[in-house]
Amino acid sequence: MVKNNKVFLGALLCSTFSFFNVHAYAVVKIDTALLNKSSKNYALRANKPKQTSLQKSKMSDTLLQDSLKGVLKSNFVLKGKRDSIQIALLRNVPNLSVQQILKGNVAGLFVQENTGEPGTEQSMIIQGASAPIFTKRDVYSLQPAVYINGVYLIQDNPFAYDVQKYDYNRIGPATNLLANIDIDNILSIELIKDPVALAKLGPNASNGAIWITTKAAKSGLREISLNTYAGIIPKNHAQTVNGAFENKFRAPFYQNYASAANYSNYASFLRDSTNLDYFGKSNWNDLYFNNTPIYAANLGITGGTERANFRFYGTGMRNASNADETSLDKYNAFFAINMLPFKWMTVSSFLNASRMDRNRNKSLRDRFAEVRYLPDFANPLSPNKANYQLFLDEYNKVVDDNRNNLLNGSLSLNLKFTPNLNFTTAVLFDYNEGLRDLFYPSTIMDGVNFVSGFFGYNQRFALNNVLSYQYRLKNDHVFSFDLGQAVQTDGYKYNYARGYNGNSDFIKINVVKGDPDNANYLNAINNFYLFRYTDKMQASLMSFYGAVKYGYKDLLNVSAVLRRDGTSNGQPDNRWITTPAFSIDWSLKNQFLKNDKFFNALNVEASWSRLAKIFLDDRFGAGPQYRTEYGWYEEPTIPTFGGFQGISRPYNTGWVGYGIKLPHVDRLNLTVSSAMLNNRISGAISLYSKDDKNQLLNIPLSAESGYASIYKNGMDINNKGIDLLISAQVIKNDKKLNWTTALNLGFNKNQVKTLPDGLSELVIENNKLQVGKSVGAYWLYVNNGIYKTDGEVPTNPGTGQKLAFNGLALKAGDPKWVDYNGDYNITDADKQFIGDRLPKLVGGWNNNFTYKNFDLNFHFLFAVGQSAINQFDASRYDFINRESARDINSVKEITSWQTSDNLKNYPIYNVWSNVIPYRADQDLFLESASYVKLRSVTLGYDLAQSKFAEKAKLGFRRAYIYLTGTNLLTFTKFSGTDPELINYNGIYSGTSLPIARTFVLGVKLDL
Amino acid sequence: MRLKTSFVILTIVVTTCANFSCKKVLDVNSTRLASEENLWRKQEDAKGALIGIYTLMRTAMVADNTHWLMGDLRQGDFVSTNRSDLKAIIDGQLNASYPVMNRITNWRRFYSVINAASLFIERSREIVANDPRYTRINNEVDVAQARALRAFAYFYMCRIWGDVPLLITSHDGEFTTHPRTSQDKVLAFATSELITATKVLPFRYGGTDPILPGLYYGSSWTTWNGVLFTKLSAYAILAHIAAWQNNYLDCETYTKYFLDNSLQLNGDGSFGVKFITTDELTENVNAYSPFAFKRAVQIVGFGFEYGNGEATANGHIEQLTLAKPIILKEYPEIFVPKDTIRKVFTSATDNRFSIDPLTKLYRTNYFTNYASEQPIFSKIKVIGEAQTSGNFAFFTSAVLFTRLEEVTLLRAEALAALGMDNDAATALNQASALRGNPSFSLNSGVNIIDAIFAERRRELMGEGWRWYDLIRYNKLKKNNPAFMALIDKGGIYWPVSKDVLNANNKIKQHPFWN
Predict the structure, then answer these.
(1) B 289-318 residues with CB below 8 A of A?
(2) Helical H runs in A356-474?
(3) Which of A123, A625, A863, B418 is packed most tightly, with the most Cβ within 10 A?
(4) Is the ipTM of this complex over 0.90?
(5) Cβ contact (<8 Å) for A423 and B227?
């Protein structure tokens, strides 16, 4: 440690991003409200009296700042740029998950919350997609790493989808594991996009990182904080309809195109208009939507001496939706302790345990997707309340227990050998398990009951060591060196069994023979017909790195990182990769504008890094291989023939050869940040270019090889963009009105740079990748109206044949698809790139007004430029094929008995045509899904500051009451219920629960 | 002092860390797959790889109900209730763009069989050197099965697509594209492979067969009957390839060998082969149904055994044909209209279906709810654990290519085609003896070929034959100009999926479908 650093030591350590959670929290008392600030500012204020007004600190919170800049830390510290979010304001919003907390609050992050069902999985994409998202499992490999106090949290692995027929939900509880962190225990959340900062974190963070620091143990007088809120989610209003509406909708199709046979196959439930089940009152919504309470309470205690101190935090909460009685209950206990047994030794440790129980929806689609057994769909659920009640009564016999237990923590040891030489070692672990017990009675399953049980765990264990040394040459040159080494081992496992046709609806669990010597070991005892699945995967990562940082006066900082990582998921001759990173940071302010009054700070920084990307699956490390995969589209998992298990090449999932290399990501950032006018305006603009190179793509092989596909390196995808943060204190009047405003914007442009084998384009089922185009672009037929008569269909003058769709001549009532190549046959060659799945611009706008002890905050969220395929409409119009297909898409949910004024109208095509006029892969159903949302409004009042309270001397440091409303307004042209409720692959299916409007009243007490 | 302590601790920590050997940490053996180095070493590997080929072949035939969608629908007896895609197939609009049609017209799954078989033929002999338990004879028999399966896959594809690319090696790990090969070449290859195989294949596995006595992979004939291809399976396929090529001379030879030796399948504890009664055929009486379980009567067939966890919803004709009152489903997806039933089942004593002229009662072996608008085709109904009705609509019927009655009818066809009408009539009557009909007589005035194909239509309804029978019938009769035009223009073959065309530009769509 260098001299000037000593001054700030205690304070700085608190704000450090210790990779190992070695925070010497113990040393100095700090005001937590200030912790998000740049450490420079922070250091100056650290010894000032408490500034409890949270509003005063948020200005700089949004700044893109290096909170560690110019400061030297004791141990391995994450240095670099990052965006921290205004955590103080977010504490008033009843968010459940990390994704929800971050949504619209930080530049360059796109959060997809595609259902309002509490506790479901959500996606985060930082600075654009680095790979195509065609299926749900593709989303997993794009997720950023989330760290809590330096512990890299392990998430569910997508390998469970191997045994699933439908990918709507992962088997098991499928709960969002990032819902386990409670915002009132969080000190700061930061989004790390800076290349060098990510290089320090290593390949785990190749998709970016989210760095969460919990409130720390600290010494001093015991502090207690108590936060609680209670709220309500008012029921939705639905415009319900019954069979008459549906009949009216279908009438024009029958009038125009139906044959006698078509009439005789008229949907049976719509035939009899005297049937009150379908033509009676449509009031299912009275039971489906409810005014639903939510609540939360938590308690935090910190205290202790300078040599040993602690923090305890406990919470209990319920998050819910107003639809379908869905909810999530969460209990969280956190304990952190710091000890200073010697002056040169710090021991820090924390333990974070949570439990989450989720009440899931009752939708037919999710049920049948789990059951993989489709009963007869001829008669859908009746829209009538009395009938729906009968269904709900039967549903009461269902067992659907979804539980997650999560435990993570670390123990770290920091040794300061000399003031300049530091050694840190830390053990980090994360374990989470998911359990689901499920039983559906025969009464709701066409006479066949169903049971399934799931147990799965993910566990991570890591050991990290760092040696740091600092050296100062004269007073102008400061060097710091880090040498680090880390080992990380991950394990994933699940056991899953589903059983059918049990003896009765009273035995709701699957009892199996427990004797391993019995031939029927694990078979059901005279009961369910069982299918069992188990899978297990392990992965390790070993890393070595060195980092150097050189600082020249207060003008220049140069950093470099060199690391070597080895992964068990790489092939033996290719599992090690060496990657460098550099950055240079120049203070223009100190160089040229030292006396300038306008600029308080002006910095430019350039940063570049390369990082390895690690495979989530262990199959690529093995090279050519044999597996057991004999299923087909409808039955993906049939294991045996004649009772024997075969083994073959992986014909269905793709050939894996030798020579598969680890992909890597190159990032280049150029950032200008500034603070102006006495720090009243601050901003940062960051230009980035991110190249995810040599990525593995599962590309189709010629069918004659027997393989569906082959994994090949060579996909390069570039994301370029601008992240912008501006915040301003528009009105500053300490006594009266203050207005601060903060805007974050993330522009992104995605481009496929190269494809494997130098291909310029590649068709993967219904998608196409083309060099130069966005990876998220849709590839669709272009619809240009309707052929009213057969005569309108153009005829090929050469052959005399009519314009055809994939060889089938078009007729009256068919769509006018555009024949771009003029060969009189509309094929894949005529599909065009239109629209994009991912937005071009995402961002948020936050405004905060304070007047005396009042404050008012409102937060807008927006995403612009993305489109969605409205499959909900496509299947509404394609009712003939949907109902006759008898697949999972034939399901008619109770919620389908409603309409909306926004619904779009489409031409009336011949629904019976073999060209499938209402096919979803045409631009007819492509809609802009851009939106602006007023995500939250909070009105608060701090009683502790009021004259009344001051007189009463109640001893509160803070007594804040607030009223928050969330999801209040949406501005969009999208015709569906909500432009956020779009699946990862860009399809709007209309099956998601609404993201509901919520109102809470809360109290925050600090004692 | 302080420094000293520090360094002691440091040393301890560093040593602990150094103990992690990088290699050890990173050598994680996957438990989810077998790597290249670990296969082709042990006897069990041969068994797994061989079973793998059979499993792939079963998948190829049943995926999305291919066997029935392609065999029973086009110009067949079934009518689609309300599925437009099935209706398009029945009407011969095979280029309609329904997802199911795109999937079943992708021949990739057949090439998986071919690749796995080629790989087995090339690699399995390595095991002989590595594992003394795996004998040369065992290997030769295994390779012969692989050859037979590969040939069968080629024949099955030629029936559907005509010309298909012919690949006779695995090209393991090398991926090149190939154009179509003429159907004659492909079938000549298949024939020669099958002939090679017949020289090695035993009649029975794991029993007292003179070629391969003793347990086969530790199991007896009770385990293996109806599972593996026998010598007679190969002969049955040979006979069909010959018939498909209009080579009835060879067809007659192969079927003769087959029928002369069919009793070789019996014994060693198996159910054995016999001409089965109608109740055995449709009601699983005596557990003799050729669809339930696995049985030696499944000359070429692939079982889905309930007890092995192989019950599925898709991959069985029951998914298309059954409905109330047999299972809970409201309407079947396809059914045989009453008119057709009356036209096909002309005899009043046919115990598959007939109406008693006096009581007006009808037999329900083939059809249930005949009185309704949509009679249920209930000939094949293997529900759950070989039940003939039930709520639990997971089916376990085997996909059956041929059985004794079918081969006998094929022999009758061959004899008739060769002009040996008396022998043909004998074979026809042998095949249909247990169906309750009066014997066919050449004096009846009915053409023998018509009679044979009419019997095939009745006997094999719902077994994936109708469309291919129509082709052979019309090739023999040449009296239907529309159909002959279809044959001449290649319209009898299916288009290939656009996924096939997209992945290999050497494959051209059949001009008929462009």
Answers:
(1) 294, 302-303, 305-315
(2) 364-371, 385-395
(3) A863
(4) yes
(5) no
